[in-house]
Design a protein that fits this description.
The structure is a homodimer. By secondary structure, chain A is an alpha/beta fold. Chain A contains 9 helices and 14 strands. In chain A, 37% of the residues lie in helices and 19% in strands. In chain A, strands 3-2-1-4-5-7-11 form a 7-stranded parallel sheet, with helices on both faces. In chain A, strands 6, 8, 10, 12 and 14 form a 5-stranded mixed sheet that branches. In chain A, strands 9-13 form a two-stranded parallel sheet. Chain A is globular. The C terminus of chain A is likely disordered.
Chain lengths: 320, 320
């Protein structure tokens, strides 16, 4: 990886990609939103409004990246599922893709989502589970992927599409599941949750970042699920968080009604990631949650996370 | 239909829509490319570069259409299948869609294509035949449709998506099948063709225009095939053209090699168009071809058609 450009570098997933990218790439160029306070070592920082095609073209012409890690998208917890901004992010991604190919780019890796799949499937497998997004967010991610795939195939461009499931970890948006429960409990507040019987695939954000950088370095082409491959009940996740926070009595499972319109099971088939990409997570769920609660213990008062990364979270109202 | 904006109004399909639109709509606003010589009675003409989102926004804000008939796309015969401009037309369509909904639009009708379907199917039926585009063009059309569908569903916007099969008729681009054969024969030149065993669904462009205006007036939601429902061998079509041109001896079936990568059969299932939209073609193939050859007889020397409409033709090299 000679020269990488990462978008959404200040987001939840993006900021965790920077350390592994520095290991993997000769030069790391990071696009952040205009006015973003985000700073990090070892990267060339570029402020750009990616929703403006002219700024996209200027940025790409200046950097001339060989590799692109495109994570920027609308991510406001709860709102992103229906945000009309999803449509603009399709346009932005396409302008970025055009500029990247026009300036000699070699490999494009983007962040997809489990929201592209038909949620009735439960276990989602690339190239097998039907793509039938239930949300505008999922439809926009899938539509962008379809154009990326067709253009890449035609032009011989390398590409991969990491379909993200459920992430947690340091710098998570405070309104997302693990962050909101951990922060409430660490502050001595009760944490009202749904019954939490739905099972999900949780992955520590730093592990997801490692998977994306592996996709960028590798040569595997196409969609690849980025998950743990393990289905865990949301109730079990927040119980573990409550134990780690030392406040199990403050957890209020069932204080909120069960979520509507959400599937009982949503888990990644990770055979492509494991066997073709050759990548596995570095942390178990227990280790990851312990690390995360410890991080919130030392950062509890600060509103970290900003607008988060480019990833779907568990809806806050569906928490626990 | 109170106030319609039609894009691609000067194109092959677009210009045939204007007469039925004048019947159907209180006001007809037509977007044409900057510098286009195209003029017609009974419409308000707007020059706009739809690839520029700022011009799209200004146009829609000025017109405030209640109904949109979006036909503009890249259509250069032969080249459009792989044209990187397809990606820009997705962006343009999305910007148009955003502006339309932002300014109170009620119903959006766009031109899709049989190229969205899995061509292995032969007979293509909406909601049944898998969508598996073999080309960048088909992928871009389908990707745009996916975003349109999701946004329309979420916002309660009316929408329809006319999947066009194979058109012919007056003002066809001179390099497309029927036009190229008719013009050559009428000029006393030989018309070299492939063996022409492949079967296709041919529809007179004025009938296709009528179908689109019916989609715009109606309330049927979703994709609707726009075809005749009849599979005809390409050889039979050009033989009929040759007879009508009075030059059967100049037709050279088999002088070109059979096309590669094209399916033997591609025909529309028109049950939705017939029974749900309640629309049927006004001309038989024989009548349509007779009308078309007569038109070319009187327009033979002129390069009509320009860049054509928004539709896939039979590739010139696959002709006959």
């Amino acid at each position: 990886v000679r020269r990488v450009l990462i978008t959404g570098a200040g987001g939840f997933l993006g900021r965790h990609c920077l350390a592994p990218l520095r290991e993997a790439a000769g030069e790391v160029h990071a696009a952040v939103r205009p006015g973003s306070p985000f700073q990090a070592e070892g990267m060339v920082r570029h402020e750009a409004d990616l929703l403006d095609p002219a700024q996209v073209e200027r940025l790409v012409a200046r950097v001339r990246p060989t590799h692109l890690l495109h994570l920027a998208w609308t991510t406001e917890p709860g709102a992103f599922w229906r945000d009309a901004g999803n449509v603009r992010w399709v346009e932005a991604g396409l302008a970025l893709l055009r500029a990247f190919t026009a300036h000699g780019g070699l490999r494009f890796v983007g962040a997809g989502s489990c929201a592209e799949y038909d949620w009735a499937a439960g276990v989602c497998r690339e190239g097998d589970t039907p793509l039938r997004p239930a949300t505008l967010y999922g439809a926009c991610k899938n539509a962008f992927r379809e154009v990326l795939e067709a253009l890449a195939r035609q032009q011989g461009l390398g590409w991969a599409w990491g379909r993200v499931f459920f992430l947690y970890g340091p710098h998570e948006h405070p309104r997302r599941l693990v962050a909101s429960v951990a922060r409430a409990l660490l502050a001595g507040q009760p944490a009202p949750c749904t019954p939490g019987t739905q099972e999900r695939d949780f992955l520590h954000v730093a592990d997801a970042a490692g998977a994306f950088v592996a996709l960028l370095r590798g040569e595997v082409c196409g969609p690849v699920n980025v998950g743990s491959g393990q289905a865990v009940a949301v109730a079990d996740v927040v119980r573990r968080v409550a134990d780690l926070a030392g406040a199990p009595a403050l957890l209020r499972l069932g204080a909120l009604p069960p979520p509507t319109g959400e599937p009982p099971l949503l888990v990644a088939d990770v055979r492509r990631l494991t066997h073709e990409v050759g990548w596995t997570p570095h942390r178990s769920l227990d280790e990851g949650l312990a690390e995360t609660v410890a991080w919130w213990r030392s950062h509890g008062g600060r509103e970290e996370g900003g607008r988060g990364g480019s990833l779907p979270g568990v809806r806050a109202r569906a928490a626990g």
